[in-house]
Design a protein that fits this description.
By secondary structure, this protein is an alpha/beta fold. The chain has 11 helices and 14 strands. Helix 3 (85-91) runs parallel beside helix 4.
Length: 372
């Protein structure tokens, strides 16, 4: 029904208001409709707070009885930090429940819908399911793969250079593109760079949008090369700093960074002595991280791709030509030897941001089952 899609899209838009603020919980929105009028709205604002359905029910009051509830994710059926949402809908005597997708969480996984049907309430599933899966992809990744969804973000000249041969990179893109990057930081749990990029750019990696939220800053630094005088440490009271190291990291420097407030994550090393990125993502998943924005340079970006970890691409191309074989590229490494092994970009979208071109898409690896 067209009306079902219209109301579900409103619920999805509502859910996105809390992007980056609910980890590890999903983004969920709920709209209550009675006699073709919206009588209640709610969304999950942060972990530990009321879920979307109770918010909407409180907003609707007695008008919830006989209404249709549009929920972006199957109502939960278990007692967590908040009571089961399925029970709340049943108690409110709604007439119908429309859900975008079932919850992949084994604690729910159809039980909430079963409980609602058992109460004699009509249930419809699958309305706007593709849109919902995109919004819920970080949560789905965390539940099903035990690791966060990874977005590979990079800004380059139109010939694929992220810096000049002298290392200058600020700013390749214009203010519109940079504002969008701050929005991405606002909506991701973690923003990640490698030690090389950190030492060249000395970034803060905070969100400078009014009312924005700072992500956790993560530096991948196998041997703790970054100095203690960096901007990361000056702003550590504003935004958490995590540093992924191997057992090769200097114990004294490790202690000095801990004393400044950094969280040191010791990760197993690759045979080359670098941080094992697959193990790092598993560790982040265990720490309830559902989304990572990589702002890495060419070396770490290539290593992430080699490990098949990035799920999405955000590529900003500036109308500039830098040239030169010594200038840093988007990806620095051996790469693939056969075109059949190239990473494919699907669901590709493009748009202009000022004078820059933004290319977005899902990354699909050879022999994989496709994007999440």
């Amino acid at each position: 029904m067209n009306s079902d899609r219209r109301y579900m899209k409103l619920a999805l838009r509502l859910a996105q208001r809390a992007a980056g603020r609910t980890r590890p919980n999903p983004l969920v929105g709920c709209i209550l409709v009675r006699d073709q009028k919206i009588v209640g709205r709610g969304y999950h604002k942060q972990a530990g707070s009321l879920h979307a359905e109770p918010h909407a029910l409180v907003d609707a009051g007695t008008l919830a009885e006989g209404a249709t509830a549009y929920v972006t994710l199957e109502p939960c059926s278990h007692q967590g930090r908040t009571p089961p949402c399925a029970d709340a809908l049943i108690k409110a005597k709604v007439a119908r429940v429309v859900v975008a997708i079932e919850d992949p969480n084994p604690l729910v996984a159809g039980r909430g819908l079963h409980r609602i049907r058992q109460a004699g309430i009509d249930v419809t599933v699958g309305v706007c399911q593709e849109e919902a899966r995109r919004i819920l992809a970080p949560f789905i990744s965390w539940i099903t793969r035990k690791r966060p969804l990874v977005t590979l973000k990079t800004a380059a000249s139109i010939d694929g250079k992220i810096a000049t041969r002298t290392g200058e990179s600020q700013w390749i893109t214009g203010p519109e593109a940079r504002r969008r990057v701050h929005r991405l930081r606002d909506t991701h749990d973690v923003v990640m760079v490698g030690a090389g990029t950190a030492m060249i750019d000395n970034p803060q990696l905070t969100c400078r949008l009014p009312g924005g939220r700072h992500p956790i800053r993560l530096v991948v630094d196998s041997t703790l090369r970054i100095p203690l005088e960096m901007e990361f440490f000056r702003t550590i009271d504003e935004a958490p700093l995590w540093i992924a190291v191997t057992d090769r990291a200097d114990p004294k420097k490790r202690q000095a960074m801990k004393a400044k407030g950094a969280n040191i994550l010791e990760i197993e090393a690759t045979p080359q002595g670098r941080v094992n990125l697959t193990a790092l993502m598993a560790r982040l998943g265990a720490l309830d991280v559902t989304s990572v924005l990589s702002e890495a340079g060419g070396i770490l970006s290539q290593a992430l791709l080699d490990a098949r970890l990035p799920d999405r691409l955000e590529l900003y191309l500036a109308p500039k030509l830098i040239g030169g074989h010594e200038a840093s590229g988007i990806l620095n490494g051996a790469g693939v030897s056969r075109l059949a092994d190239a990473v494919k970009i699907t669901h590709m979208r493009t748009r202009m941001l000022g004078h820059d071109l933004l290319i977005q898409g899902d990354l699909n690896y050879p022999d994989s089952k496709g994007a999440l």
